[in-house]
What does this fold into?
Amino acid sequence: HVQLVESGGGSVQAGGSLTLSCAASPYTIRTYAMAWFRQVPGKEREGVAAIYTRGRGTYYADSVKGRFTISQDNAKKAVYLQMNSLKPDDTAMYYCAAGEELMKSGGMWLARPKDFPYWGQGTQVTVS
It folds into this structure.
């Protein structure tokens, strides 16, 4: 049974930073592809960043490259999303997710909601 619990969301001014945490078991972090998605009302859920230890892959959406960093810490039983230089467009509900693997297409890693069956409850990030 995969359990994911997000924390760390909040309100921040543009240009600021936040770190989101996703608590999960070491087995989950080692075995599954772990990802962060975000969603705003009326829009589809968007893959933000993903990490896949077994396949040695990482994924970042173009909109966050150079600003966001995904990392994992088996000892602390968590996956993190460090978000720097935040913009109002980053405002969304952020979700942690776990999937069997990170898929590839044309040599590029993908983060698609349909590939991730396990989800946390979400944490809100608001940038003003």
